[in-house]
Fold this sequence. Notes:
The complex is a heterodimer. Chain A is an all-alpha fold. Chain A has one helix at residues 57-100. Helices cover 41% and strands 0% of the residues of chain A. In chain A, 15% of the residues are buried. By secondary structure, chain B is mostly helical. A three-stranded antiparallel sheet of chain B has the order 1-6-7. Chain B has a two-stranded antiparallel ribbon with strand order 2-3. A two-stranded antiparallel ribbon of chain B has the order 4-5. Residues 98-102 of chain B have low confidence and may be disordered. The A-B interface holds A 30, 33, 36-41, 43-49, 52-53, 55, 59-60, 63, 66-67, 70, 73-74, 77-78, 80-82, 84-86, 88-89, 92-93 and B 73, 76-77, 79-80, 109, 112-124, 154-157, 159-160, 163, 422, 425-426, 428-429, 432, 437-438.
Amino acid sequence: MPLLIDSAPDCIVQNEGATPDDDSLDFILQDRYADCAGFGTFMPGSTYGEDGSSAETLYYILTWLGIVVTVAALLAWVIYENRQLVGHVARVRGRRTAADEPPPEPGV
Amino acid sequence: MIDFLIAQVDSLEDAASAESQVLDSVILGEQYYFFTVVLMWLIHVGFMTYEAGVARRKNVLATAMKNILTIAVVTPTFYYVGWWVYNCNQPGFPPIGPNSSDFTSVACQGGIPWSDTFGPNLTNNINLIFFLAFLLFSWTTASIMSGALLERVRLSAYLLLAALLGSVVWILDAAWGWSAGGWMTLRFGFHDSIASGVVHGVAGAFALGVLFNLGPRIGKYTRDGLARSFRPHDLHRTLLGLMLIFTGFYAFYAACLVISSQSFPGWANIYLSPTTLGSITMVITFGFAGGFTGGYFGSRGDPFWTVSGGLAGVISVSAGADVYAPTLAYLISMGSAALVVWSGSWIEKKMRVDDVVGAVAVHGVAGFLGLIWVGVFAAGYPTGLNNVSSSLWGQLLGVATFLPLGFLTGWFASWVLKKMNLLRVPPEVELEGLDVVEYHADLYLPEMAAVRERIIEPDGTIVEAEAVVVEAESELIRR
């Protein structure tokens, strides 16, 4: 049994403990997946064309999580770069202002 | 009885053999697109090299990073949005009537990002690899804009614009005019087999819209509006980059075909009309030959425009590459490349648009010319599932649809960024160079960095750039 998360779709036939001969139809061990279409982690695992487009809740949530992260990364790029540029301009203008000031006179 | 049994066994063997052949065919198709994807990476290696060569030394790293991060942004946005746009919007807005085929609605199921075809799938191993070929087209489209904006656009602004162009704008026009179910093809016979207008024209128009808001680099124009030239820091790198792009273009061309193993000749264009891999390869090769020649004579031997002419030549024959004769491709590409050189100069000097790599001319002008040439030279070919003949009218409709779609979206998105002060780097940063400010690094050894940057004045004299750009910057700040 998986330690934390069982992400395999229900269509996969679990056959732990079987002898090798039980699944020797092909060199790809396809029997366990015979009822599956999309069988990636968290994917619906239903037969394509009948109810394949109705994603399981977890797969749906995972996809939306990816969308949110993509948007967040784009916003982070804008904010990070803006902060970097504004900081640099402030430093440059500060240096220029300091250079424009007359040097302190002796005794003042 | 024995005869009957033998016949039964034979029939079972035939069925097994037929099933095996179909499987072989599907796997070969999957491999075919896989290798086009791998080779199309060279387009991006090329874009990075090409643009880094054009940039001044102080902006080389920033330029290369921009190209690399295009992949980081367009990949997820195309997956989450772009493939849905392509597969689910082919009938147009609003959907155009009975001529739209059911093909669209079936394909739409595979376009949504939570479709079960986006992973290991026992019933569909073509959808993903086809998606990846389109993803590489999307990177290419976004990268076309990249070169035009060099040396003053913010990285984040570019990435937002790249996501919009690569994952929404171009793929929407592809849905309309570069698919078997697109309304422009089904109703008007629009014909753009290897994406002259769909990819290049739209990207060029989008870049022009952005350039209007972005403005020229500091010091590009004199007070009188005459154009100065910034010298590429490494012209050889630029030429090498273009040659890499050309290599990848062969894969781009190959990826635009559909394998149809059940019917002769086994290949179809994106509209499912027949063509051959050999014929489109012939056209691209003659497109380069004619384009180099036209670019050379159009620019009086300028190396940059000679090689760019090759690219423009190919783009101008792409729309009709599935049907053109080699000599026609040679002549069209030669004439188009010369026109592109002229238009590049016009855009720079008359329109005063600072397009660093001439992308608007090379991709935009050549792309839309390519659409028109099909209407002139290849009218009458049945295009698409409804077998509507290609025509000048249909091609002009394509220009009239794609040009505003690209230009207006680019202009509006960059206008919003400009209003938010997020489009362009501050003048101080532009003057110092983006590499030092954004990456805290100078790519070059100190002794190389000490070589003074030069600029070519409108009258052709070469002067040291520093005084010119500092003066231009202080003018800008005073304003």
